[in-house]
Every structure is written in C-alpha cells, then in structure tokens.
Automatic annotation (TrEMBL):
InterPro entries per record: ABC/ECF_trnsptr_transmembrane
Protein localization: Membrane
Keywords from the UniProt entry: Membrane, Transmembrane, Transmembrane helix
Membrane-topology annotation of the record: Multi-pass membrane protein
Protein name: Energy-coupling factor transporter transmembrane protein EcfT
Keyword Cell membrane among record annotations: no
Transmembrane segments: 28-61, 67-88, 95-115, 135-157, 177-198, 231-251
Origin organism lineage: Bacteria, Bacillati, Bacillota, Bacilli, Bacillales
Length: 254
C-alpha cells in the first residue's frame, strides 16, 4: 500500500492559477471531455496531441513538477508492467498507448483535485446531474456517497498500511512461511480491513445522525456562476472534440 500513498489525490492548494477560481462545472465538463477523447483514441498521433494538451493543462494549473512526479511515481510499477507485457506480446502500439492513457488520467485527476476543493467538486457534480431528478434518480445521495468515498480514501489507505506493517512485525520470525500460512495471513488481513471499514462507516453514520443530517437540507455558502473564463474552458473542450474528429478522419483516410 506504500506505492498508493504516493498518489497526490485529495488535498487542494492555492496555486494562484487560471483554473483556481473557475466554476467546478466547467472543469468537470472539460475533464470529462478530455478523458473521454483519450479513452476513444488508439493511435500514436492522438497520443502526442493529448500529451501536448496535458502539458498545457499542467502549465495552466501552475502545478509544481515535483508534486506531479510524486503523483506519478507511485504508478511506475504498473506502467512498466503494462509496457513490458505488451512488448512481450509484440504489440508495440499498445505498449506505448495504454501507459500514456493511464498517465493522462492521473494528471487530470491531480490537476482537478489540486485546483478544486472537494466541496466545490461535489456541488459541481450535483449541478451537472440535476436533470436526472426528472427520472427520480437520487442525485444528492449519489453525490454525497461519492464525496464521502473520496474523503475517506486517505483514511482507508492509512488503515490498510498500518495493518500491513503490524502484520509484518507479527510474522517477522516466520521467514520461510508456507503457502498456506501466507494465504491465511492474507485472509486475516482482508477480514480485519473489512471490519475496520465497517467501523468507520458506523462512526460516520452516528456523526451524521447526531447532527440531524438530511439529504435535501443542504445550504450553500455561494451560488455557482459561469464567467467568461468558464466559457473559455468549455470552448476549449469543444475545440478538443473538433480536433479529435479531424484526427480520426485523417487516420481513417490513410
């Protein structure tokens, strides 16, 4: 779990960037458009284009490269595994494209979490999903569930990391443990982690009940409003979509 703790998700910081004071809806629309286009792309030319777009995104967010590297270096084992696996299969194209896609996803998530507080992200997601109320979809409950899951992720990782460390200390004398002993140790860890998660959830439920929480009684400190900067971000997303269509047409013509 140590490698997962290196991911720089969750904490927001004031970088004084162009993206800092934008409406969260425009940032979510741009991120969804960018990541959807990255997912749909399967050629090297598109990967180069989205790499340039990702570099511009990081530069606009004024994100320190050291902070970005801390968010990416935890995924190096997975990236190298993907690369060498496809290289062994002789699929050089996917050996480059799949790690690039994963990097683009992580960079977008880091920029979004750094430039936007979790509360604003939840408000923006709720505003975007509000039309689903017409089909009786529980938008507020869904958004609350997502926001709580992201806020509790660091606590969950710390809990798992502390359990793994204590387990290593406990079984340090069994250097040459059998396969059955290792399986039993893994099962004990998973059961203990599941119980710890349930305990955290029960504590959260008691805290919400003590504060008389109701899903529909949410009061916002400020209203979400679009500015000219937000429209620039949305227009940029539309430009990305147009360039994607042009790139697809150029690839198919070949």
């Amino acid at each position: 779990m140590h490698w997962f703790k290196l991911l720089s998700f969750g904490p927001s910081m004031n970088t004084g960037s162009f993206l800092q004071d934008l409406d969260p809806r425009s940032k979510l629309i741009f991120a969804a458009t960018y990541l959807s286009l990255v997912t749909c792309s399967n050629d090297l030319v598109s990967m180069v284009f989205y790499a340039i777009a990702g570099f511009i995104l990081v530069f606009t967010a004024r994100l320190p490269l050291a902070y970005l590297w801390n968010g990416l270096k935890g995924l190096l084992p997975l990236l190298l595994s993907l690369f060498f696996y496809h290289m062994l299969l002789g699929d050089i194209k996917n050996a480059v494209i799949l790690p690039c896609k994963l990097i683009f996803f992580i960079i977008t998530a880091i920029v979004l979490s750094v430039t936007t507080t979790p509360t604003k992200l939840a408000d923006g997601l709720e505003a975007i999903m509000r039309p689903l109320i017409l089909i009786r979809f529980p938008v507020q409950n869904f958004v609350f569930m997502i926001s709580v899951a992201f806020r509790f992720m660091p606590l969950f990782i710390d809990e798992a990391d502390s359990m793994l460390k204590s387990q290593k200390v406990k079984h340090a004398r069994y250097k040459s443990a059998s396969f059955q002993t290792k399986i039993q140790s893994l099962l004990q860890f998973l059961v203990a982690l599941f119980i710890a998660v349930l305990r955290r959830a029960d504590q959260l439920a008691l805290a919400m009940d003590a504060r008389c929480y109701l899903p529909g009684n949410k009061i916002r400190a400020s209203r979400l409003q679009f500015s000219w900067r937000d429209w620039m971000i949305i227009v940029s997303a539309m430009i990305l979509l147009l360039i994607h269509i042009l790139l697809k047409g150029a690839v198919f013509e070949r």
